[in-house]
Design a protein that fits this description.
The protein is an alpha/beta fold. It has nine helices and six strands; from the N terminus they run βαβαβααβααββααα. Strands 3-2-1-4-5-6 form a six-stranded parallel sheet, with helices on both faces. Helix 2 runs antiparallel to helix 9 and helix 4 packs parallel to helix 6.
Length: 215
Amino acid sequence: MKQGTASPQRVGMFGGAFDPPHWAHRALAETALKQLGLDALHILPTGHAWHKTRVLSPAVDRVAMCHLAFDDLARVKIDEREIHREGPSYTADTLRELAREYPGAQLFLVLGADQLLAFRTWVRWQEVLELATLAVANRATNIGADAPLDQAVETDLSQVNLPFERLDMPLKNISATAVRARLGQAAQSTAALEVLVPEAVAGYISTHHLYQKPS
């Protein structure tokens, strides 16, 4: 390649509560890195989640679990900026910051189908579209607390009138809501948790007694 003609970097943003990070999060990160040819993927645990009614687990725990879930992936950075940002944290603000940090880069916003369906409710969603390409992985139609793990009916995205690039990821019917619900029902062994979350995350959850109902 001739000097001065290097292609712009390809940088991904993958945000979420990660409360906890689970196997579907891990698979989505791996797929985005490979399919999009990313030079960097920023994993961004949510700070003040304006769109969530429940109280999130402490940021220190969510960040620690993100490191355990993703640190072994090349080109991944656990990015704490939204946690340290005062007030509500919006994706458009983070994308603007990344655009300044990576001049000329092509930005991708990595998300699941459920987030795409709600995308027009986001604050300044038009600005997000101007800044980044949406890269979307499909999800099962039911990912709630009572969803069976083997349920394999995809969400219908055919009527979504938004530009996006589809990520070819095997369907994983796991959600953080389901993980927390299962953990709240009864004490779970680390081995049982590993069906839902990476081994190191399962160990952290057990050691720190996260998501257990008060006795």
